[in-house]
Specification:
Length: 146
């Protein structure tokens, strides 16, 4: 059973406070944030695959995909178990912040006193597709078969 604590943790990127139209929450002890907003703030390309309920972000070297309500996320085609699955809240896909931040090599620190997740970015922000195309990913990864 998923336990949700209704809190609105804060998120910063390189010291800049990020505002969201759907507030971050804490699920199973993990901060979850709107996928599109956080990646756009990091300068990454973002896509939503409505046919597979899958959020996708990429730069030149890294390709991340997370399927809604699935226990796994993919980084460059390799599956990783998530502490909290992606959820849908008020039309926004919320994903575990640490997983998606670290997938692109960003550092992240949690300050329990201020309830703030601070990201130090290293993302290139370039928008070219990596060599691992989403079509290859779709053929080789079956989230529901795990």
């Amino acid at each position: 059973m998923t336990s949700i604590i209704y809190a609105a943790p804060k998120v910063t990127i390189d010291g800049k406070a990020i505002t969201f139209d759907v507030q971050p929450t804490i699920v199973n002890g993990r901060t979850t944030v709107p996928f599109r907003k956080i990646f756009e703030e990091l300068g990454l390309h973002v896509e939503w695959d409505a046919n597979q309920d899958m959020a996708i972000a990429y730069n030149d070297q890294t390709y991340v995909a997370i399927k809604l309500k699935d226990a796994y996320g993919s980084i460059n085609g390799k599956l990783f178990e998530l502490d909290s699955p992606a959820t849908l809240t008020n039309g926004r896909v919320l994903v575990p912040l640490r997983f998606i931040s670290e997938a692109f090599g960003n550092a992240i620190e949690w300050n329990p006193k201020t309830q703030t997740a601070a990201i130090t970015s290293v993302c290139s922000g370039r928008h070219n597709r990596p060599t691992t195309s989403r079509w290859l990913f779709r053929k080789t990864t079956k989230f529901n078969d795990l």
